[in-house]
Amino acid sequence: MRLTLRLCTLLLVTAVFPLLAANWPAFRGPHEDGLAEQEKPPTHFNQSSNLLWKVEVLPGLSSPVIWKDRVFLTCEEGNKLSTVCFEADSGRKLWDNRLYIRSSKRLWAFGYAQN
Which of 39, 54, 79, 86 could serve as 71's disulfide partner, Cβ 3.0–4.6 Å? Predict the structure, then answer.
């Protein structure tokens, strides 16, 4: 769980910090090439450098989506699938929409979230 939390935090910081002014609508960005058009991403992260905010989230395998001043994540745990929305500048959770599925059988080897 700690590794998942750290990975999610890294994804959030990597995606949010350089791109507050640009939308990041899909995996690897607007052109699917992983490049921020106008910003240089940070090259190191720790508790006192290049960390805007940090939140606990459920495990997930999808890429964060940034649209205007919002960050969207998909998460899964057991039979619970969630889409969570945060304020990009503060990390405040705005909403968490959950879907509970009957089967706990995963659809793909890596989980539900990437579907």
Answer: 86
Angstrom distance (rounded) from CA 70 to CA 22: 11
| Contacts of residue 81, Cβ cutoff 8 Å, sequence gap at least 6 | 74, 75, 98, 99, 100, 101, 112, 113
Q: How many structural domains comprise the chain?
A: 1
User: For 11-54, how does the pLDDT look when each residue is reduced to its tens digit (9 = 90+)?
Assistant: 555 545 444 457 887 777 788 887 777 777 778 878 888 888 88
Residue 115 domain flag: no
| Nearest-angstrom CA–CA distance, 71 and 88 | 6
How far apart CA 108 and CA 22 sit, in angstroms, is: 31
Mapped onto helix, strand or coil, the DSSP state of residue 17 is helix
- For the four alpha carbons of 82, 85, 90 and 92, in that order, the dihedral sign comes to negative
Give the angle subtended at the CA of 21 by the CAs of 2 and 62, to the nearest 5°.
Answer: 35
Q: Which residues contact 25 (CB under 8 A, 6 or more apart)?
A: 65, 66, 67
